[in-house]
Design goal:
Elements lengths: L1 E2 L8 E4 L2 E11 L7 E8 L5 E7 L3 E2 L5 E11 L2 E6 L5 E5 H4 L11 E7 L2 E6 L3 E9 L12 E6 L4 E5 L7 E5 L5 E4 L2
Antiparallel strand pairs: 1-6, 2-3, 3-4, 4-5, 7-8, 7-10, 8-9, 10-11, 12-13, 12-15, 13-14, 15-16
Length: about 190
């Protein structure tokens, strides 16, 4: 248990049986009346964002979320298998928990897995990944470095939009948050 005075960004609260991450908080002391804390909370599982106000000094239940650095090993059916580098424990994480990150996940990638009561909550990938273009249509004469884009399939199977001059077999830097092309890797 903690009070609203102990709130910090990134802290995970257990409210009504659901886990919420504090993304923003502000202590407010109006001229009249009691002080209060205005927070922006993000649901850990669904990603829903809500604003919630607490009276100052109110007790809130904190959740113990263990964030561990793990290595992605392989896909087992619909599950992804990750290994803790310190203990060599392997955990299975469902595809729903991994989410869109699965599109950019290569074997032996270091990720952060958040676990609560031995249940994986979410997987944090590195912000950028270097991936090879598996297939893209060739650019045509007259294509320039500025202007249009074309679809390209990456080695993980993900489809992203790339500039017209990109060819099959090139290594690209991709933003894992939104699948944006960031540039070529030499």
């Amino acid at each position: 248990m903690a009070t609203t005075n102990d709130l910090k960004n990134g802290m995970v609260l257990n409210l009504d049986g659901q886990l919420w991450t504090v993304t923003e908080f502000q202590h407010v002391k109006p001229g009249k009346g009691g002080a209060f804390v205005r927070t922006t909370l993000k649901n850990v599982l669904s990603g829903k964002v809500v604003d919630k106000t607490f009276n100052a000094g109110t007790k809130v239940e904190t959740a113990n979320v263990d964030k561990r650095s793990m290595t992605y090993l392989y896909k087992d059916g619909t599950d992804f298998v990750f290994m803790d580098g310190d203990t060599y424990d392997q955990i299975h994480v469902s595809a729903a928990t991994v989410g869109d990150g699965a599109n950019y996940l290569l074997e032996n990638t270091e990720v952060v897995v958040a676990v609560h009561d031995s249940t994986p909550l979410y997987v944090e990938l590195p912000v950028t990944m270097e991936l090879v273009v598996e297939h893209t249509d060739p650019g045509l004469q007259g294509d320039r470095s500025t202007g249009g884009t074309k679809p390209a399939t990456l080695e993980t199977g993900a489809q992203i939009q790339v500039p017209l001059f990109i060819t099959t077999g090139e290594k690209l830097k991709v933003d894992t948050r939104d699948g944006r092309y960031l540039g070529r890797v030499n």
